[in-house]
Amino acid sequence: MQLLSLHPDKTLGRSTNESTIIGHLKEAYSILLDQQLRNEYDRHLLEKAKKQGMNADGVGLDQYSLDEFTADEIKGIWSMACPRCESEGGMELNEGDLENGTTDGEFGLQLALQCQSCSLWIKVKYYMGDDEEEE
Ligand SMILES: [Zn+2]
């Protein structure tokens, strides 16, 4: 009888449960609020990235095809005269660059490339050859 009355469920019972529930609600609310803030922050970052994104995804850049580049297959380098400063080979990329290209949302790939002389950015579109995968 004595033990039973000291049992937390019996003695504190209701008030404990209530404070626990309120505690849970507060916690859930703060997580929810935190999640909203995080979503807004993510969206903000995305918008910011889009505005600055010209170097990352090539939006707003002049577009060139890899066909316009001269390939040096021995070195594995593609080069082109810069369209702005006309520096010969100012635009240069290698196989590693091509492997790091991103999809253009259609069926090709693209990457942003910077002139080594005047630091102009351009967008280069290309396709990875299927024949490299077929042996
Ligand atoms: Zn240039």
Structure characterization notes:
This protein is of the alpha+beta class. The protein has two domains: 2-52; 55-129, Microbial ribonuclease fold, CATH 3.10.660. Helices cover 43% and strands 21% of the residues. It has helices at residues 2-6, 8-11, 13-52, 54-57, 95-99; strands at residues 63-65, 70-72, 77-80, 91-94, 102-103, 109-114, 121-126. The strands form two sheets. The chain has a four-stranded mixed sheet. Strands 2-3-4 form a three-stranded antiparallel sheet. A hairpin with a 4-residue loop joins strand 2 (70-72) and strand 3 (77-80). The N and C termini lie far apart (84 Å). The chain binds zinc ion. Residues 82, 84-85, 87, 90, 115, 117-118, 120 line the site of zinc ion.
How many structurally independent domains? Answer: 2
**Portion of residues in helices?**
40-55%
Overall mean pLDDT: 78
* CATH homologous superfamily annotation of the largest domain: DPH Zinc finger
Shape: elongated
Classify the secondary structure makeup into a structural class.
alpha+beta
The main β sheet shows up as: 4 strands, mixed
Series of H and E elements: HHHHEEEEHEEE
CATH class of the largest domain: Alpha Beta
The CATH architecture of the largest domain can be given as Roll
Order of adjacent strands in the largest pleated sheet: 1-7-6-5
Oligomer: single chain
* Tally of helical runs: 5
Strand content: 15-25%
Low-confidence stretches: 52-56
Q: What is the end-to-end distance?
A: 84 Å
As for the CATH topology of the largest domain, it is Microbial ribonuclease fold
Q: Write down the Rg.
A: 30 Å
